[in-house]
Design brief:
There is one protein chain. By secondary structure, the chain is mostly helical. It has one domain. The chain is built from three helices and no strands. Helix 1 packs antiparallel against helix 2. 0% of the residues are buried.
Length: 92
């Protein structure tokens, strides 16, 4: 019997392998940045009769899109990407 067998624990959740401290730090910075964007642009837009939440909505949408793309990249196996790299670069 070989003792070099590696056992893999099943993941308890899809977010089980994320660094919680890093995730909360990034979420906090995104929240602070969003509030700063809103506070810095709302009066200018309001003074010209435009939507004061324009950049707030746009920034929030960009955060959501970025978060979905980042999560999507965690689902892709990098070995699979390595196998299809020649096809993507149109090389043989």
């Amino acid at each position: 019997m070989s003792l070099n067998v590696r056992y893999r624990r099943p993941a308890t959740s899809s977010f089980g392998n994320f660094d919680k401290l890093l995730t909360f730090a990034v979420a906090g910075l995104l929240l602070i940045g969003t509030m700063l964007v809103y506070a810095g642009t709302r009066e200018w837009f309001r003074s010209y009769g435009l939507d004061p939440e324009y950049y707030f909505k746009r920034h929030t949408l960009n955060i959501i899109i970025g978060g979905l793309l980042a999560y999507g990249t965690t689902l892709i196996d990098y070995r699979l990407l390595r196998a299809y790299t020649p096809i993507v670069w149109l090389r043989r």
